[in-house]
Every structure is written in C-alpha cells, then in structure tokens.
Amino acid sequence: MAIQKPSHTFTKIHLKALRTNNFHILFILSFTVFINTFGFAQDVPKQGGTVNPEKENDSTSLNANDLIKPEISEKGQDSILTDSVKPIKETLTGPVTYKATDYTSFNNKEQKLYLYNEAEVYYEDMEIKAGVIIIDYNTQTVFATGIVDTSGVYTQAPIFKQANNVVEPDSIKFNYDNQKALVFNSKTEQAGMQIFAPVTKKINDSTVFLYKGRFTTSKDIEDPEYYFKANKIKVVPGEKIVVGPTNMVIQDVPTIIGLPFGFFPLTDKQTSGVIIPTFGEDNNRGYFIQNGGYYFALSDYFDLAVLGDYYTNGSYGLRFESSYAKRYRFSGNAGFRYENLINSERGFPDYSRSTIYNIRWSHTQDAKANPSSRFTASVNLGSSRYYQQSVNQVNTPNFLNNTLASSISYSKTFSGEPEVNLSVAATHSQNTNTEVINMTLPTIQASVNRIFPFEPKSGIKKGIIQNINFQYNVRAENRIQTTDSLFFKKEMWDDAENGIRHSIPIATNFKLLKYLSLSANAAYDETWVFETVNKYYDIEEDIVVTDPVKGFDAFRTYNFNTNLGTTLYGMFDFRKEGKDPKIQRIRHIMRPSISYSINPSFNNYYETYNVIDADGNTQEVEYTRFESSIYGAPNNRYSSSMGIAISNNIEAKVRDRDSTKTEAKTIKLLDNLNFATSYNFAADSLNWSSLRVSGNTQILQNKMNINFGMTLDPYALDNENRKIDMFNIDNGGSLFRLTSANVTMNYTINSDIFSDKASETSRQETLQSGGRADDLFGRAQDFSDPRFNEDSEKEEQTSPSPLYTSKIPWNLKLAYAVNYTNIARENEISSHSLMFSGDIEFSPRWTVGASSGYDFKNKGFTYTQLRFERDLLSWRMSFSWVPFSSRTSWYFFIGIKSNILKDIKYDKRRQPDQQL
Description:
lipopolysaccharide transport protein A fold; 5 helices; disordered N terminus
C-alpha cells in the first residue's frame, strides 16, 4: 500500500488588456520587414557583358546512337510507383487463423464471420477460445461468448489470452485495431493475485480498469475465503494494482477493515521495498515494533535486508541479512545480528543492560566451478550468551547450544607428477558456558601425493618392495585461546602459539601366506617452534620460574608400527530338504587383526632443575623446553605395545513375506561388533589396557538405530579405589570389571504419505546456529516470515487406514540415551534421558506437534515446546507454546500466506522472563 499526496488545485486568473490600435501598426511594420527580407528583384547584367542564348535541341533531329538505346517499359514509367500519397494501412497486420467444431459462416452483407462450438481465433499474440465467436470486419471487433445448453447450463465460457495475460470472462468484446476490450464477469490472475470484476474495460496492453471488482489470493475465485472489494480498480499487468476505497470481506461478510486507497505491486522479479514491522508488548521492555526494515534487491546475484527492533524502554536490535548466488559458481548467505537489551527501568534494582551480537556466514562452491580448487565457509560466532539472551523467536531451539563453531577453508590441487595439495583454513570453537574461545588463524597444510619409487612401469604392484611408498606433509598453525571479553582485542594476540610440523610417512603392504595382509608404516616428524621455555627454581621466592625464550628451535621424532589382518567368513545354513524355514542362512564376517608399534624415548630433549623443599631436601624435576609446543612435547617414555582387535558383522537371509519373490531378504543383525585391547611390553606394571566393546545395529525395518559400548578393565581396585597391578579375577572378582557403558537409540517413524512440514529454511536456520535437525530441542519459528512455513500442496488422501475412516498423517522421532559409570566403584547411572519430537495431523488442516523429553536421573521434563497449526486455505494460524522452564513463552499468529499480502496479519507473543 502506498500513500499518495493529494493533488493541489490552483485557480487561474486571466488579465485582459485594454483595446488599442498599436497592434495593427506593429503588424504592418512586421509585414513590411517580412516582404523586404524574402522578396527578390530581377537580376541586372553587368555593364559591357553579353547574354548568350540557351541552345535547344530540335526534336526532329535524330542521332544514330539513339536507335540502339533500350526502350523504357511502361511499368517503369508508371506514376503510381512514385506517387507521393501514402497507401492506407491495412486493418489486419497479420494472418488470422480460426476454426470451430460445428460450423464457420461468413455473412458477406454484414461482413461478419460466425464461429460456433469450440471456436478458436488466433491473431498475432491474441488467442480467443469460446463457444461462439463473431468477427465484425466493419467495426473491427471480435465478440466471444459461451453456449447455454438445453438444461440451461452455461458452458464454453471465453478464454482470452494476450501475451502472458489470461482472462476468463462470461463474454468479451475486443477491438483488434485499437486493442480495446470490454469484458463481462472476468476472472484473471496477476502474480498470484486472483481478480474478478463484473465489468472490465481494457484500454490497451498496459492498462485495465475494473468496476466493482474484487481481488484475493484465494485459489477459489468463485467462492473465496476472503477478498478485497473496491468500486474502482486499475490494473497494470505485471506492474501494479491501484484501488480506490477498499473494504475487506471474509466469508462474504464485510468487515470494518478498510483502506481509503491501496497500491499492490505485481512483479515476478526481485524488487526493493519496505518490510512492514510487527507490533506487540514485552514483559520487561514495554511495547515494541519488530522485524521492520527495508529490502534491497541489489542485483540478480545478491540482495540485502536491513531489519530492526525497537522497545519503548530503549532496547533495540539490528539485523543485516544477505543471500547471494551465481549459477554453476557459488551460493551462500551472510548475516549480522546485534541487540542492545535493557531490562526494567534505570534506577530500579532489577535494571540491567547487555549487548549481544552474532555473525553467520555460509558459502558453498559449485562442484562444476573449478575442479582443482575449492572454497567453503561456515561461520557462527559472536557473544557466548547470544542464543540464551536473544528475544528473537528464531533462536528458540538453539538456546541449549553449548558450542559455537566456524570454519573457513580454501584448497588447491596442483596437477603433475607428483600431485601437490594445498589448503588454508581458519577455525573457531567457542564454549558458551565457560566463554573460552579456541581459534586457529590460520592453518596451512600442504602434501605431496604418495610416491612409489619401485613400482613397475606397467602392470600392478606386487610384493613388499614394489609397494613401498612415501609422501611429504607439512602443517603450520597459529593457535589462539582467549575469552569472550577479550575477543579480537589486543590481549587476544599476546598468548598466540604457532609452529610448523613436517612429516614423512613411509609404508608398504603385501600378502603373507596368501590369506594374510601385512602392512608396515614408519613416520619421521620434525617440529619447528618459535618460542620455548626455560625453568629454574628461585630459592628466595620459593617458586619455580618459567621464562619464555624467543627464537627458532626444533625437535625430531620417529615411530614404527605394523598390522597383520585377515577376513574370515562363516555360513550357517538352516535349510533342509523339504523344509523352507523363515531364517534360511546366517553369515558371519570376522576381521581379526594384530598390530605392533614402537615409540622410542627422546630423553635428549629433556632437562632437569632442582627444587629444595622445606626440610632442605633437594628434588630433581625433569622438564622439556618444548612443553608449550602446540603439537605436544616429544615422548620421553619408551613404549612397545601390541594391539588386538576383532570386528564382526552378522547378517541373516530371511524368507520374504511376498510369495512372488524368489530371492531371500537380507537383514543385518549386527552392523558392527568390535573388540579392542592392547598390551604394553615396555610397561613395568598394568601392561594390559581396558577391553573396549562397541557395536551398532538397525532394527524395525532400519527405523531404529542402536549404538552401544562398554569398557571392561581386567585389573582390580584396592580399598581406596585405586587400580592395582592385580587381575580382578585374582582378587576374588570376575574376569573383567565393568567401568563404563553406554546405549543410544534413535527411532524415526511416520505414516506412509506424511511429509514433514518443517520447511528446509527452518532446518537450515537451526543447523547454521549449531542446533539439531531432528527438532528434539524444538523448531525454529518466525511465523511472520513465510520462509519458515513453506507449505507444499498435499495430494488428496483417497486410501483410508483400516483402523480409521481417513488417513491421519503423523511422524515421531525418539532419542534414548543412558550412560553407566563404575570407574571407582561409583556404580551409578550418570545420565538417563528420553527425548521425542513429533507431529500429528488430526484433520487435513489441523496439525499438532511437540518436542520434549524426560530426564530419568533428575526426574524432570527437559525443554518442551508445543506447536499448533491451522491451515485456513489462504490464511494460516499458528501457536507455539513453551509451558514451563526459564524459557516460558508463547507466540500466536494469524495472517495471509501469500507474499503479496503477508503484511496483513495479527500476532501476539509473550517473551521469556529476563534471567540474571
């Protein structure tokens, strides 16, 4: 809607002079000058000159050459070809094509063409289809109407199409010369707006006037749920609708909602414009306007939306959102959000003020853009308490986030022999509870593809020598650890740590005894650092002093490991002659492996200093100057260990319930069942490590995913719950002592025809903020933003359920997790919870959803969100409610779905109480 300034009316005053003869005198003088200027006298020859007479050829004299001149045709001498009078333009500037089912008749006397039954006329970009069409060549008009059958039913109503505009009236009269038309009971669609008018006057291709028309976004123009009625409407197809006094009608009942005039833009392209805000009241900040601003359609490749909030107590918020895309190259979006939140009023004891911000950026490069280089970005950083304190409804499911993470990377591949890969990345990880931030600015990695120096020039590589390969890797990092309060301040850079690591792994593999696979690996590492430490004991202060030492230094390490493994197959066949059991076969795949590794001790990089205690005793303390290295200190303990691991996979062949299928169906009983432990030969005690058991499987037609794991310790505990060098079985216990266990289950089911109504925009919003995509912590919602409620057209449900008279679409997501701890005889369940999220559609347009959970350990419900939605065809009504917890709030919305009229809405909300 636009506001037009009323035009001003000015009174014109004409002053008439008195009559005088001066005008005639001036006219005579002007005429005399005119004659003198453009008049020419006879030329007088110069004195003494002669006048030569002009020679004229005698018409009777002939020249011999004239006899051979070609004769000029009469056609070439036709004066019509050079006539100065322009010919009259033809009435029809193009061919007219027409047809009809029953008959076509031309009345020569009336100069009219009659078409009856399924008549069609095509002329230039105009197309008319109707029951009856009459073309009058005298008045240059086309009249089209429908046919009334014997039962009185009006059929074959006209369909008028010109360019991209389609009109479906009861009858139409069109002048194909001046492009004017008179349309009765027309129905047309313009950019999603359905328009109906009893009388329509079409002036030209760009202007249409409607009398007592109505327009709506309802798909049923005959019986709309609502419409706007106006006596005068002007439509410029593809550009705008301008109306006079307008009244809103709901279910044919006029309402008090009206406008003195209105302006509705119509366009298929992006256009800049004002974003109408929403109004409401906040418990702590007073009345507010939210999400108001301006949208800039900057180009076909990117846009910008500037939004803002303002509260009467002085709080405000700003948001900048931009999306960009270039086909076959890249796409992404960026946003900056800032909120200055004031609670209560200055002078009151509960007064508080805080500023929070959030920066997000997501960039994806198209795979076709460049096969040798790639740039990606996923940024989510800002204030640690942003999602907890933000009053934006979109952040509802993300306030439980404990971590904000970001990554920006660029990779480049240099083809050749060997191929070189280079990548540069910057990462960020932020704990929202401790407000500790860890960053790498930047991380540079380069690697050379594996080189096989002894490979044959042709054929495959065989044996231990031909499979020897090595490569070169280098990694350089600059790590920063800071806090939220020092983020991007000078102090943040003072404690930065950096270093470079070079690595050359050498490996080979070959077959041993035909069925065994043996692989051997050795690695040489060299670490460069630019700051080390020097430690000594200060006797006077009685403290250990650590002095940083600036300068380049390096240490070098190496290690060796080998692995021997194979694959064993076992088949258990339950089929017998004359019997067809349900479980026909069970196949067991087992992959045992034994590994051995050696890590030497690098004591040459260690030094000592003496500490004197209060009794005067001297104690020697060992340290390394590289202990602050970002890649860790060199190992000073020799280790020689053997690892044992067994991986299992169990599948079953089951007879299919469908008797027409001849092949048995494969069912996975256990996707993985893994056992792993190790033995350290160099340790003086506790040589065996704990046995780790883990596995996962899927049941219920792969709808439920189960993951489980446990840790079994072979050693016993003493009376003080400390591990001792004695097997648990020798201490009167079992073979293993269960120290920890965990089980997680995820179950997702839905009705066959049900599609999750959460829009992709809502999921992406939650994922970019670090939340979950399964809605278990609630769903991101901004009812006033249509992007979060992308409704898809649902097909008619024609196959009812055997238990109900109609289909009831639904979905359910469950997540169950339990953790057991018994490291030092705690024997307790450390965590035990069940989370669920689901939606059910009780009727074709009523949907109820919920996200919640229950903590069995603390005996309480987790964060709960209830959702209600009513599809009102052209309208949508939604209600979201958090019934308890510190985030207690609700949000109600009702408004028109269409983007054209999305600002016609009503919403009301209650924000969570301010938590200090």
